[in-house]
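Input chain follows. Return structure tokens only.
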Amino acid sequence: MSHPLPLYSSLDTLISFEFSGHFVYQLQEGMLAHVSESEVGHVFTQREWFLIVGVLISSQVLLAAVMLFCLVIMLNKVYRLYAAVTLFSCGLLIVSPLYLLPNWGVVLPWWELLRLMVALLCTHWAARFLPIAQTNNQALIVYASQTGSAKYLAQRLHDTTHALMDIACISTLTEQTLQRYQRVFFVVSTYGQGEAPDSARRFVNTLQEANSAASHTQFSVLALGDRTYQTFCAFGHYLSELLEKKGYQRAIPTTEIDRMDPQGVAHWWQQVGELLGIHTASELFEYDDYTVVANECLNPGQVHRLAHRVTLFCANARYEAGDLLAVQPDQKDEHERLYSIASYEDNTIELLVRQHIRTDGTIGLASGMLSQLTPGNRISASVREHVTFHPKENVPWIMIAAGTGLAPFISFLKKRQASQDKAPCWLFFGEQYEEHDDYFAQDLLSLQELGVLNRFDRAWSRSDGVYVPNLLQQSRNDIRHWVTEQGANVYVCGSREGFGQSVLMTLQDILPEPQWQSQFHTDLY
């Protein structure tokens, strides 16, 4: 309509070519008119016309390729049902008059909308309700991870079998899946006060409600934990007892692993290999070589609570905000230590490390090593994916930290700055002295000035006698509004004892119960 065209008494003399049963007329000034039943439908430039035709033909070719692929896949009986549903859906679309360039109107005919709806419903049904494909493998390794350690270990174990066993997250597990295998090996972490990792709760609830019955499936549990906690490996033992109670056969006794002890893992894995008749690798943990770029003490006045900002470089370092770095101490027979990453740039990793002093006055092994590093030193470390603590995009964040628990939120905010995400961010931070313990002060000030960090509340317990739960109570109405009305996600990081327990109790008082399932995330240690 934006191109005024002269009227013609006879269109027959202007026929350019026929397309899909309709005539296309060549008008002056390079314009094309699509005519149906002697009525002009749409007027295009030649460029527009060829673009439309190209898109329609390309989509038909793509659908035809998918249909051909489905025909090949149908030769495999495992995937035959999936292929048939996809073939049917593509068939509905490829014969649609949408691809025949009809006399388009403002609204598609109702039967075309119905055709599209049926195709989409078929695809949705195939994705959600068709049974999981059968497997030729007789063994399955299942991981239940909170900080990523169990997932990492299970993947490493799986890789050493050269695909002779399957691997799955416990969140995808069902009783039917479990019973299809002769042997199932669980690698599970214990979280909090002996609790199951978030990913394991649905399966545990399902298993609790299931009727007990004899099963040919054998199982073994590798329970990961930290012996300094009273609830050491509690979930691993609970899962093992529950499986046995429901009729599954114990193949190898439950094995406890203290802080990813490599010798304990290797011994259990050797037993698994003997059971399956396969050779298992002795070296299960892989570490990269990191070079120290800088090491800055952020609170030199706090002699007994020194905090260091350590910057490391590794050309292969890839990670997401919220991930952890597993550091291997100099003594190779010692357990690795996990630290939150306080940066958001590939290849470079920053850590906020508290120099741990034991009750006997000696310095902690890993924290002592990290705090004494100088530029040019090298350490062995490995990134651990921490999926349950990855920040969600395009939603507000309420971040609550104490001490070195601030580290992941520096990474969160730098990610938001890099992605130019405009959702608001609110940070609560607690430490002892304002004059000593204002970590990453310049970085946070810059993020405030850029509008990335919108609200920032600090509690100085020794300077002002104020703690983080006090700040939460003072802002309870705003916190509830952010979470219930704006859909904010709440993230808590810091020591479980003292800080973590008091913050959780305060938030339970402030927030309604439904928000705890999907919008609440913790990394407490």
